[in-house]
Design a protein that fits this description.
Enzyme class: oxidoreductase
Protein name: D-arabinono-1,4-lactone oxidase
Strand order of the largest sheet: 16-13-15-14-18-19-17-20
Radius of gyration: 23 Å
CATH topology of one domain: Vanillyl-alcohol Oxidase, Chain A, domain 3
Shape: globular
CATH class of one domain: Alpha Beta
InterPro entries: ALO_C, FAD-bd_PCMH, FAD-bd_PCMH-like_sf, FAD-bd_PCMH_sub1, FAD-bd_PCMH_sub2, FAD_lactone_oxidase-like, Oxid_FAD_bind_N, Vanillyl_alc_oxidase_C-sub2
Oligomer: single chain
Strand content: 15-25%
EC number: 1.1.3.37
Keywords: Oxidoreductase
């Protein structure tokens, strides 16, 4: 029996009592949140049950039920991943209510937060203590655990992927045990988890290195594509954070160069670009492009014209790092060795020119985003072992409507693969364990950790089974979660 000093063990809880304890955090089957749809509106799933825990104990209850019933559990945050990474046909554990700040240490410059906190909320909490994250990707409407599990990146040739700022993790393993790991304590579990796709365990807490709050001065200007490729090394090294947006239809590259500054805030916002034209008019044009694909070329030229002017902005770091992604979209992004960048970009241009010359050719949207990161040592990081260039393409979904993308992405990915490309883990790709083993020298070490901490595969959804374990068949297929749309 349980006492005040010795509470009832999870394994001793009667099944009906377990159901009762889980009822308050179980989403009713008819509720809209019982169906999971990712931000890009590209994947959807109807889990067996969706749980929304508010405490670590409730998470333990979910895992206890899964163990007893032989079900899988998939953690999901706000659903930002444009792939089926978060989708499951088993149990889903939604983490948005696990969003507390545990500790902020100004002197030692770190924060401890629950994994379900969004970056937007984390920015606000850090700002209250005059702290900030050192680097960011393009979007802060995603969870801290999500960016850690996928080695999300920003841009800056001397800055590593965001997972490298993690000092330690608190995980809930498949057997219900809570463990803390770092580079010094259980280092193999740590290195597997800071780009582990949520497959090593549930990320409860993240201890993250931060720095004093800072502003960035960002200069944006257009340069000719050939000039950008020829002068790439100088361009990338000219500022702390450099990212490029390539408009292949117009042959120009929009260069964003940002450095830390003490200047007073001076944000730049064009009402015409960001409101009337940048959102409503362009979305309508992309809608027309679904009907007449040839229009997409001229829409790309129009987009380049809209951003033709040089701009200078000074603002808080996260406001400069983040950009408006505007609409739901299909997207794919690959990381190539930095030294391959000029040759890869030239091959991409030649391919896109061939498509445009063909009346029946593909007509991609704009822009192609190009970013850079420093080498790191994370087992499954696409930047592992070498400086990296990340290249991503998109196909917008105007008004949420589908657009052709599969042929475009397949041809793009073949070019990236020829240049040693590794796909971004949060985005859809077709690589299985045989190909991944060639790209990641520690791949088998990663799999060994999974088999040790989760031998029954509790945290293995179809994405993990397909890509990491090579499972085939209808229940693991890459389009299984397309059917619900």
């Amino acid at each position: 029996m349980a006492t005040a000093d010795a509470p009832l063990r999870l394994t001793d809880i009667p099944l009906q009592t377990l159901y009762s304890l889980l009822e308050p955090i179980t989403v009713p089957s008819g509720h809209p949140r019982a169906t999971f749809i990712n931000w890009g509106l590209s994947y959807a799933c109807k889990p067996l049950a969706v749980f929304e825990p508010e405490s670590e104990y409730q998470c333990q209850l979910v895992l206890e039920l899964a163990r007893r019933e032989g079900k899988t559990v998939r953690a999901a945050g706000v659903g930002h991943s444009p792939s089926d990474l978060a989708c499951t046909s088993g149990y889903m554990l939604r983490t948005e209510k696990l969003d507390k700040i545990i500790e902020v240490n100004v002197e030692k410059k770190y924060v401890v937060a629950q994994g379900g906190i969004t970056l937007n909320a984390l920015h606000a909490a850090l700002d209250a203590h005059k702290l900030a994250m050192s680097n960011l990707g393009s979007i802060s409407d995603q969870t801290l655990a999500g960016i850690v599990a996928t080695a999300t990146h920003g841009s800056g040739i001397t800055f590593q992927v965001l997972s490298t700022y993690v000092l330690s993790l608190a995980l809930l393993l498949a057997d219900g045990s809570r463990v803390v790991c770092s580079r010094n304590d259980r280092p193999e579990l740590f290195m597997a988890s800071i780009c582990g796709l949520g497959s090593t365990g549930l990320i409860l807490e993240v201890k993250l290195a931060v720095e004093p709050a800072f502003r960035l001065r960002e200069v944006q200007e257009n340069v000719d594509f050939d000039d950008a490729v020829r002068g790439l090394d100088a361009l990338v090294a000219a500022a702390e954070h450099v990212r490029l947006w390539w408009f292949p239809q117009a042959g120009v590259v929009r260069v964003s160069s940002a450095d830390r500054t003490q200047e007073p805030p001076n944000p730049v916002s064009s009402w015409l670009w960001h409101s009337i034209v940048g959102y409503h008019v362009l979305q309508f044009l992309f809608f027309l492009g679904r009907i007449v694909p040839a229009l997409n070329y001229w829409i790309g030229c129009f987009g380049a014209w809209l951003v033709r002017d040089l701009t200078v902005a000074v603002d808080d770091s996260h406001r400069i790092f983040n950009v408006d992604c505007k609409y739901p979209q299909f997207t794919t992004e690959w990381a190539i060795p930095y030294g391959e960048t000029p040759a890869c970009l030239q091959e991409l241009r030649a391919w896109l020119e061939e498509e445009h010359a063909d009346p029946q050719g593909l007509r991609p949207h704009f822009p192609i985003e190009i970013r850079f990161t420093e080498a790191d040592d994370i087992w499954l990081s696409p930047s592992r072992g070498e400086r990296t260039c990340w290249i991503g393409i998109i196909q917008y979904k105007p008004y949420g409507l589908n657009v052709p993308y599969r042929k475009l992405f397949a041809r793009f990915e073949k070019i990236m693969a020829r240049h040693g490309g590794r796909p971004h883990w949060a985005k859809a790709h077709g690589l299985g364990p045989d190909a991944l083993r060639q790209l990641y020298p520690r791949f088998d070490d990663f799999i060994a950790v999974l088999e040790e901490v989760d031998p029954s595969g509790m945290f293995r959804n179809p994405y993990v089974q397909r890509h990491l374990f090579g499972k085939r068949g209808a229940e693991f297929g890459e389009r299984i979660f397309k059917e619900l749309q």
